[in-house]
Amino acid sequence: MGLDVYVGTFTRYYQREWETIVQQSFPGQVQIVRANDAARASHQEIQEAVAAWARGLASSLSLSSIGSEDTALPYFTDKPAWDGYGGLILQAAYADQGLDTACRQEAITTDNWDKDPALNRYADLSVETLYPQLLLGGEIWLPISSPSVFRSVDAAGNQRVFGNCGKLLNELDQLNAQTWRADIATRDGWHRQGLDHGSSLEVAAKFGWSVMHRLATEAVRHNLAIILDY
Question: pTM above the 0.70 mark?
Answer without folding.
Answer: yes
